[in-house]
Every structure is written in structure tokens, then in C-alpha cells.
Amino acid sequence: MTEDYQEENLIFRTETYLNEFVLKNLDKSLEVLCKCDGLDPIVEEVGLVNRCVDAIAMNASKEQLVSGLAHLECNVGSGKLHMHSQDWWVEDLSALRIDHYRRVIAAMRRTGVRPESIGTSITHYAQTSLKGVERRHVWDSGPFVGDDQRMLVETLIDLLATENITTITLSFLFGMLRMAIEVDASLDCRIEVEKRIGLQLEMASLDDILIPSTQTSDSMFDVDTVHRILVNFLQRIDEDDSGELSSCGYDSDGGLKSPSHSSVLKVGRLIDGYLAEIAPDPYLKLQKFMALIELLPDYARIVDDGLYRAIDIYLKAHPSLTESECKKLCKLIDCQKLSQDASSHAAQNDRLPIQMVARVLYFEQLRLKSSFSGGGSGGLSQRFMCSSSGVPSSCVSPQRDNYASLRRENRELKLEISRMRVRLTELEREQGLMKQQGMRGGDGRAGEHGRAFLASLSRGFGRISMFGGPAAAEKRRRKKSSRSSQGSEGKNRRRQKASFAYD
Questions:
Q1: Are 197 and 177 in contact (CB under 8 A)?
Q2: Cα angle vertex 501, ends 500, 503, to 5°?
Q3: CA 8, 12, 16, 22 torsion: positive or negative?
Q4: Phi, psi torsion values for 165, nearest 5 degrees
Q5: Is 110 exposed, middle or buried (0-12, 13-18, 19+ CB in 10 A)?
Q6: In this structure, what DSSP letter does residue 20 have?
Q7: Which intervals of the chain are annotated as region Disordered (predicted)?
Q8: Residue ranges per domain, the chain?
């Protein structure tokens, strides 16, 4: 077979065929490399695999350059160059074995193949090769996949980390993360995918982060993975805010506008939706639920309605929580960020601690006072706004003002009644505790609380009579007029009696 026996023997002819026909053609090189499966270690010893790998990478780079120049277009209006090329070899690489494929990708990186093409190839290879991976259910136990499937997933994730490809879609990254969890890949591989997801978490949807848990004794959802992704996102935000302050602009109101603030707000809404979805899980521990809430900064939520809804669902699904645990959980809600509807719901929510309800009512009262003080001057300015001739303007209807004042009065009356009910509940609870403990000196304390409650109750009824509306005002005017008429009649009678006495 060598030249020692005869010229142009079998080895010489094989080398000539490889050099002239196989290695110069990308399709032929792929075909020969696929035929090398099962011929180890002979093909490695003669160097056939390395030659095919290098040939594939070189031909792909040449075809990319030629096709790019052929499809190069110039936009006359903008003067920009646009390249339109399609790599046909992306689908053909999916037929390779995973170890051969890894070597081809590394060779393509050395020869200068575009990262976008490499990322597309990795995506297509993963979608093709991972179709047969079995799905694990929560109730399954024991090993269910072989080492080949685990090695396949770990290799693809390692390629994503090595190539530093930024064009991979977020849906593909979440798919790889779910697959890594299912095949029980190494923690380093999972952390690598989580870091890449954290770079663009603001583009994720709720279905993406609802990752089922594979542990039988844990909750239904993998909360730890979402927690690590959120940590990576916040680290990226801190780096952007510290290193790119010069790129920050100013909004229309003159305030500093950070490019990452909108991303934080999007992630805040995403996490609130995620908390509401996992809250009904009876196996979800309070520590994990609270840790996920505390991780987001305060400026990530403009309104805490979503957080209040999630906590309310958790309290309803976990009635065995102690009073101290409920207080710790409800302290995470900023009552000043609750809307009017959420505050009204919280004031009547029996699942919330009394301290939480009292805080809600307190801030609602402050809001009412600020609205009255700020809206009164505005209402007067609108009501007595005059035209150029000095005549008051009639653009504001008196009937509409009466309706608005009645609505405000009714709202304040409802709040006053709610405060009385809360105070009455506190007194009943304290009285019950005093009876159980058998405190001797508790009668004076209860009397003081009772007198305070009666005083607040009298003030409440005073406010109710004060906000009686136009009908009550009319009654008061009638009583006042009748009293004045009675007084005048009495004076006349006394004068007549006096005149009779002088006569």
C-alpha cells in the first residue's frame, strides 16, 4: 500500500483523492467526518479527523466571505452597507457527533467565522439533538437519563460560554436551562446559563420563569433558580449604573433618567406576577417567598398592588402561619404605595394583621387630608374664577360641586367607621387576654381603653352629624330661625307687661 512497493499505490491515491476532492469541498468533508464514527482510534492516528475538521472550518469561512461579498448592498440614502447571506452548512453540522461538532466549532472560531453563524449553528444542533431527551416529572425518582444526554447538554452550554455569543435568543436560553435541570447537569453549567439569562431578564415573560421543580419534597416551582437569575440581573444593573452614568439622560421633567431604570421596573412587574403564581403552592416555604420579595430594591415598584395581591394569596393558601410570621410578611408592603382600591380591600381584609390595617387606614387618612387641603384652594379658584368683565365664570356647575362634596363626605364617614371597628376589635382582644391571664389591676386599664373608645366614638358620631349633607344643614337653619322667632315674641310680651306695670 506504500510507495515502497509500487508508485501511486493505495495510500498515495487516497491522499490525492482527499486533497483534490474531499478537503476542498465542505459538503464532502462533512460526509467523510460523519463516516469516521465507529472507526476510532484509527482515524485519529492517521489524522483524518483533524484534517476534515480544519477543512470544514476553512471552507465555511471562505463561503461566508464569498457569499457576503456577493450579497453586499449599499443603501444610497443612508450610506450603510447591508450584508445578506445564509449559511447552508448550519443544518448539515447537526449530523455530526457531539465531540466532532465541538472541534468544528472551535476551528470555525479560529478561522474567523461570524459569531452569529456559530450561534445559529449551536441553536439548530441543540434543537435537533435534544428532541429525544426524556422529560422528568416531579413524582419520578432515581436516574432516568444516561451520561450521553448529560454530556450533550453540558457540552452545548460550554460552547455558549466559550464562544461568548450574544445573539442567542432568551427563549433558547430558558429551554437550555430547563433541559440542564432535567438531565441533572453540573451546577457550573446551570449557573452559566442563569448568568446569560440575567443579562436580558427584562425581556422574559412569566411563562419563561415558571420553571417546575424536580425535587419531590420541595415546592412545585424552582424558586432557587429564579432567585439566582434575579441576583445576576441586579448585579448587571449595578455595573451599568456605576460604569455608564455618562449615558444617562434627562426626562421631560428635568429629572435624571437612567437607561436601566425601565428594565428594573419591568422586572419588578415580572417578579410580582411570579410571586402571585407560586403563592398558592402549599409547600412553598415562607423564607424563600420573603427572600424573593426582599431581593428587589424599593424603586423597582412604583405601586405595591401586585405585591399585596401575591401576599394576600399566600396568606390565604397558608392559614397555619403564626401571627409573628404574618407580621413579618406584611411589613414588606409599603402602605404608601397602595392604590385606593388596594387600600380599601386591605382595610376590610380579615387575613391581615391589625397593625397592617391600622397603617393602611393611617396613610389613607393622610392622603385624604392632603387631598382636602390641596383640592380646596383649587376648587375655590375654579369656583370664583372671573372673566375679563369681572363677572364670575359659570363653567363649574354648583350641582356637580355638591355631588363631589357628598362623595368626599361619604368616603370619610366610611373610613371613620372602619377605624372604630378596628379599635373595638383591639379592645375585645385585650379584654379576652386579660380574662385569660387573670390580671387583677386590669379593670382600670380596661376602663381607660373604654373611655378612650367612647371618646373616639363620640367624635365619630360628631363627625357623622357634621357631615349630614344639605338636608341636615337645612334642618339646622330651620331650628335657628324658629328659635330666633320665639325669642322675638318673648321680648314683645315682656315689653307689653312692662308697659302695663308702668301704666
A1: yes
A2: 65
A3: positive
A4: -90, 125
A5: exposed
A6: I
A7: 464-503
A8: 1-72+87-112, 114-134+144-193, 200-241+259-330
